Amino acid sequence: MHLGAYAWVCARASVAPGINLGEGAVLGLGSVATRDLDPWSVYAGVPAVKIKERKRPVAAEDHTA
Fold first, then answer.
1. Out of 34, 48, 59, 64, which residue is the most buried by the measure of CB atoms under 10 Å away?
2. Rounded Cα distance, 18 and 23, in Å
3. Would you state the pLDDT for residue 2?
4. Are 43 and 59 contacting, i.e. CB atoms less than 8 angstroms apart?
5. Closest Cα to residue 48, out of 15, 5, 6?
6. Sequence spans of domains, the chain
7. Helix, strand or coil, per DSSP, at residue 33
8. How far is residue 51's CA from residue 65's CA, in Å, rounded to a whole number?
9. Which residues of the chain have pLDDT under 70?
10. Tell me, what's the pLDDT at 5?
């Protein structure tokens, strides 16, 4: 299993062996991840399915004036 930076696994959620959670991925309450989760996406259900995309935060040093 690999948890990317900023990835969240909510309470009572389960992740199957060998599954990768991309950077910023969220696995919702009580969900079961049976496949890799795309970066910056929200998943829910049994088995977990993508329900929406997340906005990727922009770091202060990425801003150009």
1. 48
2. 16
3. 95
4. no
5. 15
6. 2-54
7. strand
8. 35
9. 59-65
10. 95
Nearest to 27 by CA among 35, 64, 62, 61: 35
pLDDT given for residue 60 in this prediction? 56
Q: Which two tokens stand for residue 43?
A: 């998943």
What pLDDT, on the 0 to 100 scale, is given for residue 65? Answer: 52
Hey, what CATH topology would domain 2-54 get?
UDP N-Acetylglucosamine Acyltransferase; domain 1 (2.160.10)
- Six token digits for residue 22: 């991309």
Q: How far apart are CA 51 and CA 60, in angstroms?
A: 29
Please give the pLDDT value at position 57. 81
Q: What are phi and psi of 61, to 5 degrees?
A: -75, -15
Burial of 21 (0-12, 13-18, 19+ CB in 10 A): buried
